[in-house]
Amino acid sequence: MSIDDLARGWARYPILWSPRVSGDGKWLAWTWTGITETGEVWIAPTDGSLAPERLTQGKDHFYVRSLSQDGSKLILAQSIGSNEHDRLFRLDRSSRVLEALTPLQSTSYVFGGALTEDGGSVVYTADLENGQPVEGSRIQLLDLATGRTHVLAHAKSFYDLEPEISPDGDLVLYGSYDTDPNGNQMWVVGIDGNGNRAVLNAGARFKTRAHWLGKGGRLLVQAETETHERVGLLDVETGALRWLIDDPRRNIDAVVAGQDGRSAMILEYQDGRLMAKWLDVETGLEQLFTLPEASLKPIAQLPGGDWICERYSSARGHDLVRIEPVTMRLTNLTRSSEHFHGGYHPARDFRWTSSDGQSIQGWLYEPQGESRGLVVNVHGGPTWHSEDWVMPFIQFMVGAGFTVLDPNYRGSTGFGRPFREAIKKEGWGGAEQDDIRTGIEVLIEAGKAERGKIGVMGLSYGGYSSWIAITRFADLVDAAVPICGMYALDIDYHATEMPHGRAYSIEMMGGTPEEVPDRYFRASPQNFIKNIKGRLLIVHGLADSNVSPENTRVACRDLLAAKIPFDLMTFDDEGHGIYKAGNREKLLLRIERFFSKAFK
């Protein structure tokens, strides 16, 4: 297969976003990007009786926020050029009429969009009130009949997770970072705006999450401690809290509450792989919920007890499936193989020891035949992780003949709280970058990489790590492709449009640029560009409201002034990442040519 055909195929690989299930459990909707130029909404019955049906056709991506009880109406979100300043819409499935619910805007952030059971109102969080930007968050209820918005509750700080309506429709669950950016609290407020109160607080420095568990007024809760995450059951009315799992040996990443009031899914990681467990909250009994050939991520329980899950592996792709939990009988609902006919390159678990003795895990992909060079693909976040799954950029590069390492450096999720929090010890640009560097060195020692053919690329924090690699590890790294990456952390802090982005920087760096200037200086690649010896391709979506394109503008200015050569690729119609199929194809081809020239 030619490189052009390879890029065209992987640019159109179907990537799943935002799956949601109707209240009656009969319909599943999600966004697919890759199959079409932009991310469009698809729907399918959860019994698998019909093939997926496409519902939207837009110039920008649509995301599913919620479905009505019977699945006939959907609440969608869309922003212009993926700038993440979302606008909410209601889509009528039968007529295909798309009705704008909130105004077009470019200043604020909207999270959620949950329909009430009667379909008459939508609940969401936004840093808006009366159409004007505000500090903090407003939990809002939009009456769809009158178009009037009612503020149910105020949060002093911005909170970037969706509010949840209780199954009986009486209460709204939401979160707040009102005391410290390191930790949050969970609150409930009446659907009428009365009775606003905090219900879960693990301490100023600890994060909490909660989800409604059936109709009994109980919450399935997850809370950090110094050493681990624990899971419990909270009665909202009485405040009684019973811990169900409290074990520092377990790496619990998330929980999913069931509809039946007693089932929960524990998303736990072992050796870098998801090993979900089905928990009976009344008896405390747990049952492994896995498949032998792929990872299985529970998403929602259906009436009757079956679960909607995402099944995935680097060797077979991603699908949304229905699972019967006793027999593990599977029904494929998305049937993505009908839309993608390429071959996969499987990941291999790869481990090494970092410079300070910390054990690091990653995924190694090797091409057939002789390798053209090593490309390290650094995941974003950093509070995220890579798994044994399909990443189109990685699959394309391996298909083009490159070896790829996908490292889970310290700060990644999935390896326990101490590992995740370790990145805060020095702040960004510290030991986690040594984790990446030592991974390269181990591959060289093993004969799986060679000096002179080492590259680093990544999106967001992966883009920042690419900047670090080409400036700090100039004697080791020959080429870098930072995609929407931070170049100067003080500029990034002040230029981001996201209030929650600034709070995240404070959490990770231990303060603002004015409070800890030495940390920001040491961690900013801007201050070390004189070390650059290798080739550099800078990529940015100009609608990026997260990592501002000001990072790239200043980088280009500095590099030109220092007479350091570089390549630049920007996209007017992309934000934090390059996701439109045509743009992705162009980027894949450009990256392959870039590394090919760099490694000669």
First-residue to last-residue Cα separation:
22 Å
**Nearest-angstrom radius of gyration?**
23 Å
Biggest sheet, strands in spatial order?
Answer: 30-31-33-32-34-35-36-37
Unreliable segments (pLDDT under 50, ≥5 consecutive)?
Answer: none
- The percent range for helix content is 10-25%
Structural class: alpha+beta
Stated plainly, the CATH topology of the domain at 365-598 is called: Rossmann fold
Number of discrete helical segments: 10
CATH classification, class level of the domain at 365-598: Alpha Beta
> What is the residue-averaged pLDDT?
96
Corresponding CATH architecture of the domain at 365-598: 3-Layer(aba) Sandwich
Shape: globular
CATH-level-4 superfamily name of the domain at 365-598: Alpha/Beta hydrolase fold, catalytic domain
Q: How would a textbook summarize the main sheet?
A: 8 strands, mixed
Strand percentage: 35-45%
Number of strands: 37
Topology:
Blueprint: H1 3-11, E1 15-21, E2 27-33, E3 40-45, E4 53-54, E5 62-67, E6 73-78, E7 87-92, E8 98-100, E9 110-115, E10 121-129, E11 132-143, E12 149-155, E13 164-165, E14 171-180, E15 183-190, E16 197-201, E17 208-212, E18 218-224, E19 229-235, E20 241-245, E21 252-257, E22 263-270, E23 273-274, E24 277-280, E25 286-288, E26 295-301, E27 307-313, E28 317-324, E29 329-332, E30 348-353, E31 359-365, E32 374-378, H2 392-399, E33 403-408, H3 417-421, H4 431-445, E34 454-459, H5 461-472, E35 479-483, H6 489-495, H7 499-509, H8 517-523, E36 535-541, H9 550-561, E37 567-571, H10 581-598
Parallel strand pairs: 32-33, 32-34, 34-35, 35-36, 36-37
Antiparallel strand pairs: 1-2, 2-3, 3-4, 5-6, 6-7, 7-8, 9-10, 10-11, 11-12, 13-14, 14-15, 15-16, 17-18, 18-19, 19-20, 21-22, 22-23, 22-24, 24-25, 26-27, 27-28, 28-29, 30-31, 31-33
